[in-house]
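2.7 Reproducibility. Because tokenized structures are sensitive to small changes in the input, we list the exact sequence used for Starch-binding associating with outer membrane, including any N-terminal residues retained from the expression construct. No trimming or masking was applied before prediction.
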Amino acid sequence: MGLLLLSTIFSCESFLEEDNKTGLTADAYYATAEGMEALVNSCYTPMRFWYGKENGIALTETGTDIFTRGNGMENPPVALYNSDLQGANAPIGFYWTRLYSALNTTNSVIGRIGDSPLSSTLKPIREAEARFLRAFYLWHIVETWGGVHFTTTEVTAIESTANKTPIETFYAQIFEDLDFAVNNLPATTSDYGRVIKPSAEAFLARMHLYRGNNAEAARLAKNVINDYNYSLVANYADLWNINNVRNSEVVWLVNFTADLVLNRELENPDGDILLRDGGNNSHLFFLMTYDQMPGMLRDINNGRPFARFMPTAHLLDLFDETKDARFNATFQTVWYANNSKNAPAGMNLGDTAIFVTKKIIPQSVKNEKNYNIIDRSRTYGPNDAPLVRDRYMSLKKFLDPSRLTISQQQGKRDAFVIRLAEMFLIVAEAEMNLGNMGEAVNHFNAVRRRAALPGFEEAMEISAAELDIDMILDERAREFAGEQQRWFDLKRTGKLVERVQAWNPDAAANIRPYHVLRPIPQSQLDAVTNKNEFTQNEGYN
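Resulting structure tokens (single pass, no recycling of outputs):
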């Protein structure tokens, strides 16, 4: 593992040595104000490996109750929990390497910043940023693999041993770092994308909820709701307007750029891709292959359909589209003809070419139409197992019509990590756990009212007697589908196995309790010398 942890340091030194006109070494560069600022900035970059990227989405959304594999999915084992989900899984190994490299970078900042020439005013702010990000990466590590290797010091030499550290130790460090961040970060910044105090409070609220510290979770989430200038966007659909990405609801995000020169695929001298295709790629993965159907060809507005992930029937059934505006804001159900060359008789440009519904449509009705109707019986079987994996209702939240060409993979959309709606639902869950049902349902209903179609605000509200953890998980599915929280939500609530068995026929027969952790990469197990101590997670070979 030490070899992998050192990769970022060696890459940086190699870069400096390629044309080292100044004679600076990495150590000397990081001892300058410019070098320290660059090192802090580099702590943010690894988030772009996870958010808005195919395998990061696969590990957080598929293999749950709401998403399964489409026909184009490149890593089916994480969706199916089958026997191929083992330590040799390449994407899991990739994230182990990247997250530990990210951890090492944050440790480097925290260890070096005290001797840096940054001003006494700036120094605690930059350290707070690094501590927030260290907590963020530690959380991803511990929730993905459990009590694995833990370190808070920079790796500067090859290490051949690894430790198994209790989960509680990880969280103790996470809380310590986030407390430091809350106490030292400014409330605002002119440098969009940098972590600030409310971002740290929001993430700390999430962490306290994960550990069952309900009073602290509720207090911190209420701070974010009440003490800053955030507000729920009035219409849920407006959250996903590509021209409204910077809006009043975003508490923290992963910042991408629209500059394709900066958004290129970047490689290090060894050919290891650091930013696959650049930008936010989430617009690619949830789309069915609409461009293979009569009357249609691929265009920018409808997206480039990779068909990696498809919704379970359960996710579709969670929405009451007669009252909940999120259904039509989340899913694309109609495609309009844009290709006259392969259109059936009587279909003109702009006419309906494809209609997708979660209902079953009688064959007689289908026969009357000159457009394709993809109903429930075409996509899902009697037990809701997928019959096909290329014809389904597409999740459209992440579409990026600002792309310059139909083949462009790079997207400029920022990836939302924490939205204000989550703070309301954290308060609801925490107060429910504390028995304060009135307070809980008030915050829960704030999200429901925002989601309502005009005139249905009261109809969307629930009573305190209806609120339980399943209701909250259902609401989180409707609100955050595709936003890379679902696997963690099901795991932390002890509902992963139960809900997958109930509503994901693809994975129901395979999932076991040990799947709440991912396998440790076999390359790491092979590399350490203390193999009897640093062993594979339970259930994996």
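DSSP finds 23 helices and eleven strands in the chain.
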